[in-house]
């Protein structure tokens, strides 16, 4: 991965408590998995940043290397990779996501 791309991703993740790298935007998700993650975060009423990976091939391919995760969406909470849609759904249903978000937003 190019050093400038890594630096840009590092800065984006560090400057936002919750970041979702996804297909589309929070207003217009372009796949069902991205839509599910957006709906979960909207229901939880937490601030989050989205990055549309379809607008930039370098970010789209770079994120797979950066996270070592092959699919999208990719959710980062408090600077750490949290997971994709399935992990978000499981964590939401179990209450773990609420705990993680409370920790992140209060730190």
UniProtKB/TrEMBL annotation:
Q: Where is the Glutaredoxin domain?
A: 18-81
Name the Gene3D superfamilies on file.
Glutaredoxin
- Which sequence ranges are marked TM in the entry? none
Checking SUPFAM superfamilies in the record gives: Thioredoxin-like
**Which positions does UniProt annotate for glutathione binding?**
23, 60, 72, 85-86
Name residues in a coiled coil.
Answer: none
Which is one Pfam family of this protein? Glutaredoxin
InterPro entries reported for this sequence: Glutaredoxin (IPR002109), GRX_PICOT-like (IPR033658), Monothiol_GRX (IPR014434), Monothiol_GRX-rel (IPR004480), Thioredoxin-like_sf (IPR036249)
* Gene Ontology molecular function terms on file: 2 iron, 2 sulfur cluster binding; disulfide oxidoreductase activity; metal ion binding
Q: What's in the keyword line of the UniProt record?
A: 2Fe-2S, Iron, Iron-sulfur, Metal-binding, Redox-active center
User: Which residues are involved in binding [2Fe-2S] cluster?
Assistant: 31
Q: Which family does it belong to?
A: Belongs to the glutaredoxin family. Monothiol subfamily.
Q: Which PANTHER family match?
A: GLUTAREDOXIN FAMILY MEMBER, MONOTHIOL GLUTAREDOXIN-S14, CHLOROPLASTIC
Q: Return the protein name.
A: Glutaredoxin
Q: Where does this protein come from, organism-wise?
A: Chlamydomonas reinhardtii (Chlamydomonas smithii)
Lineage summary: Eukaryota, Viridiplantae, Chlorophyta, core chlorophytes, Chlorophyceae
């Amino acid at each position: 991965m190019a050093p400038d791309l890594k630096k840009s991703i590092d800065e984006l993740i560090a400057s936002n408590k919750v970041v979702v790298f996804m297909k589309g935007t929070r207003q217009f998700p372009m796949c069902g998995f991205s839509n599910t993650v957006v709906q979960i975060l909207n229901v939880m009423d937490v601030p989050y940043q989205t990055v549309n990976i379809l607008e930039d091939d370098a970010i789209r391919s770079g994120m797979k290397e950066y996270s070592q995760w092959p699919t999208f969406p990719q959710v980062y909470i408090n600077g750490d990779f949290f997971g994709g849609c399935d992990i978000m759904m499981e964590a939401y249903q179990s209450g773990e996501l609420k705990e993680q978000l409370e920790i992140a937003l209060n730190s």
